[in-house]
Amino acid sequence: MKNKFLKVTLDGHFFDKHEKVLVAVSGGLDSMNLFHLLYEYRQELSIELGIAHINHGQREESVLEENYLKQLAEECKIPFYLSHFKGRFSEEAARKWRYAFFADIMEQEGYTALVTAHHADDQAETVLMRLIRGSRLRHISAIQPIQPFANGELIRPLLSFKKSDFNNVFHFEDASNQSLNYFRNRVRNDYLPKLKQENPKIELAVNNLATDTRNLLQALRDLTKDLSVTDLTSFRQQTRAVQRYLLEEYVEKFPDLQLSRSQFDEVLHILQSKANYKHLLKNNYVLEKDYHSFTIDKIGPQTDEQIEPIMIESEGIFSYGSYIFSLNHPMADAEQVLHFPSHLPILVRGRQAGDTIRINGVTKKLRRWFIDNKIPQKVRQEAIIIEQAGKIYGIVNLASSDLSKSIKNDIIKATLYIKMKE
């Protein structure tokens, strides 16, 4: 494993452009192998390491893992960066929290590479998960060993290794890995074993599909490289299939835009039919189009612009940013529930200067609460505030104020159910 790892890493030129490398370490077998390999070969690779760890607070062992990794970093004389997950836990919410934290550390501390322990087994699981979820073809393609991330690159040097290749270094076993409550666990522990009964090499077959897809997309990329996507005269001369591909390529430049199929189709329709047009997209992105060209840009925080607030005045289902809100209609999979003492309209908006929230008997400015709870900067910028009658009742997927928690059942006049979009 060791010699092969060094060869794969050097042949792949993974760290040629990097000196400061941040390693995401959970404490499990995969990430502990990754850390020990990088630490052992740090001189050969000419890199300085730092450990980034997120305590998700979902298991009793979380504190033991945190303390062990902190001690390991001290013994190895390398920096250790820690974040505690806040808010309603879900796989997607935890993933977004992790990568926002990693990006913050990279930008603040000058790291140019984030390294994760994804391996060949993860690759097959991820592709199958995306197939089941109905992802676009381009998202079924193989996981890239190197891709842009934050102010540098995300590097996955273990993709050519299976978990069975790893050394049995000291690590923590996560009992929740056996729980079928999580989608990836169902794929790993239930779906793949059943598929192996039909094809014992199902992981290889799935990974081959991903590789074939990547090669097909690269061929299309090569064939269309001279076409201008944003020039509408050129764009409209192409077939509908080519237009769709070109727009997909353009949208891929904005990894945090994350358009759904219906939202993508809406953008494509606008480009095919509308004249001068300005259309607000997800996550503070805006589409601007004139007769000759179009652009998609992110509204920068320095402009102080946000998605327009919405006022919820009647029962029903509403959408804002990456979330769905339901007033007085229960959602079984709601990630957050807020209670209100009156039928007054409920305001859903972005954060504002001077916002305050009362939690556990203490009223704090929202800015101070974010700092005290070490909320990543990106999460702060995208925070969604729930307000009624000028008072904050919650921060979506982060906190519920005492105002919501303390209402007795007999005086609850309205209930807001919140969940992240699929």
UniProtKB/TrEMBL annotation:
Transmembrane segments: none annotated. It is found in: Cytoplasm. One of its GO terms (biological process) is tRNA modification. ATP binds at residues 26-31. The keyword Ligase applies. Its main location: cytoplasm. GO terms for molecular function: ATP binding; tRNA(Ile)-lysidine synthase activity. Residues 346-414 form the Lysidine-tRNA(Ile) synthetase C-terminal domain. It catalyses: cytidine(34) in tRNA(Ile2) + L-lysine + ATP = lysidine(34) in tRNA(Ile2) + AMP + diphosphate + H(+). Keywords: ATP-binding, Cytoplasm, Ligase, Nucleotide-binding, tRNA processing. GO terms for cellular component: cytoplasm. It is an enzyme of class 6 (ligase). Its EC number is 6.3.4.19. The keyword Protein biosynthesis does not apply. InterPro entries: Lysidine-tRNA-synth_C, Rossmann-like_a/b/a_fold, TilS/TtcA_N, tRNA_Ile_lys_synt, tRNA_Ile_lys_synt_N. Ligates lysine onto the cytidine present at position 34 of the AUA codon-specific tRNA(Ile) that contains the anticodon CAU, in an ATP-dependent manner. Cytidine is converted to lysidine, thus changing the amino acid specificity of the tRNA from methionine to isoleucine. Belongs to the tRNA(Ile)-lysidine synthase family. The N-terminal region contains the highly conserved SGGXDS motif, predicted to be a P-loop motif involved in ATP binding. This is tRNA(Ile)-lysidine synthase. The gene is tilS.
